[in-house]
Design goal:
disordered N terminus; 22% strand; single chain; Immunoglobulin-like; alpha+beta; four-stranded mixed sheet; 2 domains
Amino acid sequence: MRMKQIFTMAMFATLLAACKKDQYYLYNDIARIQFGPAPNRIYQTSFDLADTVKPYTFYYEPAGTSQDTVFFDIYAIGGVSDKDRPFALEQIMLEEATNAEPGVHYKPFSDPSLKDAYVIRAGEVHTSVPIVLLRDASLKDESVKLQITVKPNESFQPGEKTKLWRRVDFSDRLSQPGLWNATATQYYWGKYSMTKHAFMIEKTGEKWNDEFLALVNTDYAMISFWRLKLKTLLTDYNNAHPGEPLTDESGEPVIFP
């Protein structure tokens, strides 16, 4: 009986190891590639899916700005090479979403100007992936989504399934910053609306984008200051417009918690 138990446990361990290999790869077969966090966070598992979706808006840029670039971190798995290794990207079309159009909303990955951009250099395992966004007139009226994934080529096969995609949600109008998340909505700034966002910018002179919110979030005293400041500014506005309190684009009253 004991020999049978030992055999069963050994079989279980073998199957478990096989499952782990199938799910996470051992990366000793071929070179693979996948997205990941910034290099200084690569060994912190809590950041494995950081920057999965990046919001962006041309709203703050000068009128003459026709394009801009966002970056994602990508890693070669399986060691370094003594040769430059190009990698390939493609768009994933999303259902029930306004998908970005190549050549209209973003520069196609096959564009000659990007030939040297999608490469893991010799002796390296990391690079920043540039996604060139184009300021099309349609972005004044709508937000679009550009979801990308890695695809196999002569240098790389895909890595872990959960790390094969990234997305940019962008427009040319005010949009909800990534740091205006569920916690910020519940405790700090309330429900997001473009009307509220524009009011905050106009009355404070700050952009209230991710860069500014990151600064505010470093100090709870600063958060408290701005919460009180915004509530006061809103009260002053509503008092100056009796019977016409500030309402958002959905017709709901603008409030700060």
